[in-house]
Amino acid sequence: MVSGDILSEKRLLTVDEVARFLRVAPNTVYRWCRDGKLTGIKIGKEWRIAQADLDHFLTARTGTTTLSSLESLLHRRLTPPEHILLMSNNPDEIYGLQAEFLQIGLKFGYPLFVGCWWQRSSHVRSKFSELGLPVAELEASGKLTIGDLSAAYIANGPQGPIDVWRQQALAGPGETIWGTGSHRLADWDGRYEDLIFFESELHRAFHRLPVIALCPCLLDPVEQPAFESLLTLAAHHSGALFISNGEPVLMKTAN
């Protein structure tokens, strides 16, 4: 017979349990397991992590804290104003990184804002809730606002979304807002100059606002004109975030 103490030591945690404990997105835990950074056991299509392996992972990475790699990076490198570009061709990866970004902002005590372009607000609420963010509770308490930037752009051009960001940033005097809004490059097909102009105006506005913003761009198959536009986009952000070998890398621009 196996004693209760031994069973406790060998307890297997789900990815969702580990993600909730570390306050990161489940996709981050999956990535650590796939890359071998966090020892896990694959049971069918699901991962399980032993408590002892999780303890070893935390000790090896942080010593005495439970900061994720992205949290450590952002906490160390970002001060407002920031306008960080992220590019991915995977919608789920974008949702996961946005959710993790918001969880970090929540942990730091910032008011949160999500601006919707290609994402529907109802889908954002559903996906972020699945990823461990208490959306309903945060909205009810005024700690999270979800706005429709696409509708604001249609109604008032580039100034519309900029006014939404400004309103959110100035809602709490002296407070830094932690926000994210994602474009889908295909929505700007043939109008890449409009996207670049908008991002340049938004970037200029952010210079006068207490904002830390993550700006993911969802890529479809990229043709040459779009690729050249992507390179230009980087000039209208304060940095670019990449995932390399499962780890976040932040490259800051000179502007």
In short:
With 255 residues, the chain is an alpha/beta fold. It has twelve helices and eleven strands. Helix 2 (15-22) crosses helix 3, helix 9 (149-156) crosses helix 10 and helix 11 runs parallel beside helix 12 (224-234).
Account of the 3D structure:
The protein has 255 residues and is an alpha/beta fold. It folds into two domains: 4-62, Alpha-Beta Complex (Molybdopterin biosynthesis moea protein, domain 2); 69-252, 3-Layer(aba) Sandwich (Rossmann fold). The chain is built from twelve helices and eleven strands. The strands form two sheets. Strands 4, 5, 6, 7, 8, 9, 10 and 11 form an eight-stranded mixed sheet that branches. Strand 8, helix 11 and strand 9 form a beta-alpha-beta unit. Helix 2 (15-22) packs across helix 3 and helix 9 (149-156) packs across helix 10. The longest helix has 18 residues, at 91-108. It is globular, with a radius of gyration of 19 Å. The N and C termini lie far apart (65 Å).
**What is the CATH class of the largest domain?**
Alpha Beta
CATH topology of the largest domain: Rossmann fold
Which regions contain 5 or more consecutive residues with pLDDT less than 50?
Answer: 1-9, 62-67
Instruction: Please compute the radius of gyration using only Cα atoms.
Output: 19 Å
- Percent helix among the residues? 40-55%
Helical segment count: 12
Portion of residues in beta strands equals 15-25%
Q: What gross morphology would you assign?
A: globular
Count of discrete domains: 2
Structural class: alpha/beta
Largest sheet: 8 strands, mixed
